[in-house]
Amino acid sequence: MTTTSESTQPRSALHDAVTARGLRKTYGRGETAVEALRGIDLAFPAGEFTAIMGPSGSGKSTLMHCLAGLDTADAGTITVGGTELTGLADKALTELRRDRVGFVFQAFNLVPTLTARANITLPVTLAGGKVDEEWFGQLAATLGLQDRLDHKPHELSGGQQQRVAVARALLTRPAVVFADEPTGNLDSRSGSEVLGMLRRSSREMGQSIIMVTHDPVAASYADRVVLLADGRLAGSITDPTVETVLAALAKVEG
């Protein structure tokens, strides 16, 4: 099943931010073995906001973890920002995740003793780098955080904490940002704010985003939805709406 519609978003991407070829991943052995990924071939164009969806156990979280270098595939190749992950030594893989990949998680993952500013700049600080203050200021303004930078996480709302996490993910201008259920702990209003900001970062800043979600509303903010079922690709939707996502999921789950 593949559903497409005419896209109204201009595309300036000339290459893929992330590619996967022949990706396979199995957990366990023998009779208890579970094939989480069964030969996935996918390309994620630079500057595109892609949502990955599917029933529980479809392989969507495993796919994201492999693409992000957080887990190792049993077979196949993964390329992030022009660098192939296959065979990278641990140090090189750690550096790639630090420099070329951004992460936004459901649980925010902020350091409670640090201010919002320190949390945002933490990856650069740990790497011994220098913060691009102009870019930092632009991110803080775009995400509406200018007057919250001196506040610690417990002094921020859930939506504000997630915006801090988004700013942290974008600060190093990564090749791709992976978002794992980024609105799972937010109310609908805060979730809409965060999703709108992710979409703006893609459309206005050219950021590549790959988001795993179970929420059709969240998926409707993406440029494209990729559907998985039983570790295999089960279709895609261009310019998704809540209605087209629900219809596609019903077919996959049926």
From TrEMBL:
<dbReference type="InterPro" id="IPR015854">
    <property type="entry name" value="ABC_transpr_LolD-like"/>
</dbReference>
<dbReference type="GO" id="GO:0016887">
    <property type="term" value="F:ATP hydrolysis activity"/>
</dbReference>
<keyword id="KW-0813">Transport</keyword>
<dbReference type="GO" id="GO:0022857">
    <property type="term" value="F:transmembrane transporter activity"/>
</dbReference>
<feature type="domain" description="ABC transporter">
    <location>
        <begin position="18"/>
        <end position="254"/>
    </location>
</feature>
<keyword id="KW-0067">ATP-binding</keyword>
<dbReference type="InterPro" id="IPR017911">
    <property type="entry name" value="MacB-like_ATP-bd"/>
</dbReference>
<protein>
    <recommendedName>
        <fullName>ABC transporter domain-containing protein</fullName>
    </recommendedName>
</protein>
<dbReference type="InterPro" id="IPR017871">
    <property type="entry name" value="ABC_transporter-like_CS"/>
</dbReference>
<keyword id="KW-0547">Nucleotide-binding</keyword>
<dbReference type="InterPro" id="IPR003439">
    <property type="entry name" value="ABC_transporter-like_ATP-bd"/>
</dbReference>
<dbReference type="InterPro" id="IPR027417">
    <property type="entry name" value="P-loop_NTPase"/>
</dbReference>
<dbReference type="GO" id="GO:0098796">
    <property type="term" value="C:membrane protein complex"/>
</dbReference>
<dbReference type="Pfam" id="PF00005">
    <property type="entry name" value="ABC_tran"/>
</dbReference>
<dbReference type="GO" id="GO:0005524">
    <property type="term" value="F:ATP binding"/>
</dbReference>
<dbReference type="GO" id="GO:0005886">
    <property type="term" value="C:plasma membrane"/>
</dbReference>
<dbReference type="InterPro" id="IPR003593">
    <property type="entry name" value="AAA+_ATPase"/>
</dbReference>
